[in-house]
Specification:
This protein is an alpha+beta fold and 273 residues long. 24% of the residues lie in helices and 34% in strands.
Length: 273
């Protein structure tokens, strides 16, 4: 197998001095960049945001891109519309960096429930059950779940380093021209792996995944919903299309995120000689 392309996102969220610092590092065969968001611990209102591009198309660069338009926005659900307003649709990397930072802060909120006004982690979970009903595999099948979020997270709360996430992808080509994309998604609460098989033209001929860690057993059923992706061409396959084909709200949002990254990286690798 010949490796054609590699990519990785790494996100870390830590707390200090009544504010949160979220940082996402992107490394790929063609690009390298860092994005960050600083937000108030209690309100999650953004006080600073920006990114630095360090490498593009194989060349070393050092470009700072402050994003003052995000100051005052809440780094929580709904921030995507603010990011879309501030960052051009064509600048996918800036958007991804900001979105990954926000996703990290949302996950880190588990360890901020008291600052966010909840009496306990279970009260915090009950709020999410109402607010995010039917939003993902778990919240679409609450009647079948056997474990709560507090049971999954445990009782040991974090004080400084709140959340870590790594998402990686590698695209290879065999002697026959067939391609394969393999990826992993691992964070403080979830873990899974996925694989795409593709024709030389980028048509998906196989799609599989499995979960190693998730809040409930119902989440582990997500890979069963990926078969509609087979037959699709990754070129021009957008995130919303991937989500719809992969089961939408009936599937795990993190699994869809991983599968989209496999599709995106594969589309970039198609045609590489």
């Amino acid at each position: 197998m010949e490796v054609l392309r590699q990519s990785s996102f790494y996100t870390m969220v830590k707390r200090g001095d009544n504010r949160l610092q979220a940082e996402t590092i992107y490394l790929s065969t063609s690009e390298e960049a860092v994005g960050w968001i600083e937000a108030r611990t209690g309100s999650l209102l953004i006080e600073d945001a920006g990114c630095s591009v360090l490498r593009r198309a194989g060349e070393q660069v050092n470009e700072a891109h402050p994003l003052p338009g995000l100051i005052g926005a809440e780094a929580h659900l709904g921030a995507g519309s603010e990011i879309a307003r501030v960052v051009s649709r064509d600048d996918w990397l800036k958007r991804e960096l900001m979105n990954e930072c926000v996703k990290g802060i949302i996950q880190a909120e588990t360890f901020l429930f008291s600052e966010r006004g909840y009496a306990s982690l279970r009260d915090y979970e009950n709020y999410w059950k109402q607010y995010q009903l039917n939003s993902c595999r778990r919240f679409s099948h609450l009647e079948r779940t056997t474990r709560g979020w507090a049971d999954h997270v445990g009782v040991a709360l974090r004080d400084t380093y709140l959340f870590n996430r790594s998402k990686t992808c590698s695209v290879s080509r065999g002697m026959d021209g067939e391609m394969e994309a393999v990826g992993s998604f691992i964070d403080s609460f979830h873990e899974m792996g996925g694989r795409l098989s593709l024709s030389p033209e980028g048509r998906i001929t196989g799609c599989s995944a499995n979960l190693l860690r998730a809040p409930d057993r119902v989440c582990f059923e997500g890979p069963e919903l990926l078969s509609p992706l087979v037959g699709q061409n990754v070129r021009g396959l957008g995130k919303k299309q991937v989500a719809l084909l992969a089961g939408g709200r009936q599937n795990c949002t993190h699994l869809i995120d991983l599968v989209y990254e496999l599709c995106r990286a594969s589309a970039e690798a198609v045609g590489v000689t």
